[in-house]
Amino acid sequence: MFPAIHRQYSSMKLLGHIPSWLRNKYFLSTAIFVVFITFFDDRDLVANYHHRQQLKELERSAQYYRAEIEKTKNELNQLKNDAATLEKYAREKYYMKRDNEDVFVIKPSKKGEE
Question: What pLDDT, in 10s, does the model give residues 63-103?
């Protein structure tokens, strides 16, 4: 008979089933904000987790390279100060020899090529 009143009554009936804390505009706005920040933002939780994992990996890599640099500096210092070490390094790395010597390079065989 009165369709506008009937629609209003049916919508109020539907809203009556929803708990009052879900109808609170502050709760809804906070919930939407939290969902947006958690899943849809450029700096969401998943991206933040991946960035932290990448940072840890880069820190481990930097630590490894610092140790390698220190080892190389020590090796360079030994080469500068000790003639025997310099000769050993030249023979091992660059296969250098004296004029009256012959150098034979023996490569280890692979397990499948025996």
Answer: 999 999 999 999 999 999 999 999 988 888 888 888 888 87
Q: C-alpha dihedral over 43, 46, 47, 53, to 10 degrees?
A: 130
Domain extent for 51 = 3-113
- Per-residue pLDDT, 20: 78
How far apart CA 63 and CA 68 sit, in angstroms, is: 9
Dihedral of alpha carbons 61, 67, 70, 75, sign: negative
Q: What is the DSSP string of the chain?
A: --HHHHHHHHHHHHHHHS-HHHH-HHHHHHHHHHHIIIIISTT-HHHHHHHHHHHHHHHHHHHHHHHHHHHHHHHHHHHHH-HHHHHHHHHHHH----TT------PPPPGGG-
Number of folded domains that form the chain = 1
Residue type, 75: E
At residue 82, the pLDDT reads 92
